[in-house]
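REQUEST ID: PR-0412
SUBMITTED BY: lab tech R.K.
PRIORITY: routine
TASK: structure prediction, single protein chain
INPUT:
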Amino acid sequence: MPEELLINVNPFETRAALLQDGALQELHIARSSGYSYTGNIYLGRVERLIPGMQAAFVDVGLERPGFLHVRSMLPRTAVRDPADVQPLPDIRDLIHEGQRMLVQATKDPIAGKGVRLTTEVTVAARYGVLMPLGDQIGVSQRIEEEAERERLRTIIAEARCKLNTSMGFIARTVSEGIDAEVIEADMAQLLTVWNAVAAKRADAHCPAPLYEDLPLHIRLLRDLAGSALRSIRIDDEHTCRRAASFAAKFLPEIACRIEHYREPRPLFDRYGIEDEAARALLPRVEMKSGGFLVIEQTEAMTTIDVNTGSFLGGSRFEETIYRTNLEAASMIPRQLRLRNLGGIIIIDFIDMENPEHQRNVLRALEKASEGDRARLAFEGFSSLGLVQMSRKRTRESLAQQLCEPCPLCEGGGLTKTSETICAEIFRAILHDARAACSPGASEYLIRAPETVVDRLLDEDADHLAAVSSQVEREIRIQVEPCYGPNQFDVVALKDTGR
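STATUS: complete
OUTPUT:
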């Protein structure tokens, strides 16, 4: 499908939107704190070993220390299958506290955790990935034709001889069909980058960053450039010139597709990106048929519930369910990309009795996921009618980037009813009186929001009078407009004139 890349640049942030057939698929945001730590290389110091977890915390100069598991320290050829019963080496035999080491971020800080680290350092370019600490030659698994895989291996082997290096190198998917001269130039560029990292390491004070991946707009050009990318529109002249210069040097095939957006109407407004991004923060997603999805993100997983809503369908209920599930299966992968949801994902499709319908829905889900650049894995329908899938997570979701927990509900997503707050107020007064916490007090003052005060004076007026009689003190009420729905104060007063 034809793709468009829209880049909006402001002094305080850079945003990039990827569209397919005019529909928003991905939204990337980089602010003053940066876009992503993934791919960055650091000279770190082991801060603490956790033998029970076979892990270590490594200070890399960020707000929180990074997390390094023993599996992330093994060479790629030595990484065991999860079913392998052979024990992993003890992390205390590999590193010690205070040790300086070269590490790379593989996952951004998420939910209060530090970056995820590995000692298997790599540097990526357009057509290949350099593995300076290894010597193997690899080819992307997405290149299936064996003749092409062998051609790429031969090109890499010959280029390594010309460049006088034995470092490892992996050919990326986009290298399929690319001339040997282009791949060799890519490898030479990666070696230049690595030599700069090695030189910087020699003089660096630990902890220190040694290499940072490209800025957002350049990184996306590198990763997204291809025949499907028909146009790149950038609304900032300086950024546009920089992108065009990079493309002319490294991606000449897309240089002519970069253009400076000059219209007075904001770029993201022109393509409806602002409205689409706002809807991506809501849990409910409407479908064209009248059905809807409910997407809930938790720390451990994301759940997606499929509902028929107002969709009446045909005369057969089973057919209505089937059509709703098919539409949901085609929409869910786009929502996962747009919201950048990762980890374990549980989809609760509407129950289907026909096994063929289940297989078709699962195939539709996999088909709609083909354009996703993240690594995906699917499980079939469980006995409970649930589909489990996983999507590789390397950075925060869109909601985590743009939102924070509500201070009123403390992230619960719910507020207590006025009836519940009134009951809590009555309990607080009774507890204070029975425990004699306020000796000498002649009355209580309730300070609460208007909705709670209205209930105290109306539906709960009899309860208020009963509590006042039970504690043998007058109870006064005061509206606090600035209080949130869950806030209230009960104040014991000694002087009734105050």
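NOTES: The longest helix spans residues 180-203.
REVIEWED BY: pending
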